[in-house]
Amino acid sequence: MRTKVLSLVSLFVFGAMTVFAQSKTDKFKVYGTCDMCKTRIEKAAMAVPGVTKATWNKDSEMMDVVFDSQKTNDDNIQKAIAAVGHDTQKYRASDAVYDKLPACCHYDRAPMVTKAATPMKKHK
Ligand SMILES: [Cu+2]
């Protein structure tokens, strides 16, 4: 009887661990401005197979995602978002796609891609 209970417990623990291992939560920066951006960004993220939840915060420009780590990863999601015109923490949208966004959606692009981001040493 005792071993039966133990094996049931271990089976349950193992099962729970597997579920937790698959469902991964991540947070990263996505550049955007308005509610239209929010819809576009979330739609792009949700279209990635394995993504179960995608929420973009307009004020903080932070993206919260929940996904199955066996089906996809952080990079795939960020690439999908960049593909619809929004720069992310790791990936830059192509200029052609960015230019086609409605005017209200033209966010300030990441500092690293502007001309102002010249290395400090050159000023000395
Ligand atoms: Cu917008």
> Helical stretch count?
4
- Compounds present? copper (II) ion
Kindly report the CATH topology: Alpha-Beta Plaits
**Measured distance between first and last alpha carbons:** 78 Å
Number of separate structural domains:
1
The percentage of residues in β strands lies in 15-25%
- In one word, what is the shape? elongated
Which consecutive residue ranges, at least 5 long each, have pLDDT under 50? 113-120
Provide the helix percentage.
Answer: 25-40%
- CATH hierarchy class name: Alpha Beta
The run of helices and strands is HEHEEHH
CATH architecture: 2-Layer Sandwich
Radius of gyration: 20 Å
Largest sheet: 3 strands, antiparallel
Strand order of the largest sheet: 1-3-2
Short summary of the structure?
By secondary structure, this protein is of the alpha+beta class. The protein contains four helices and three strands; from the N terminus they run H-E-H-E-E-H-H.
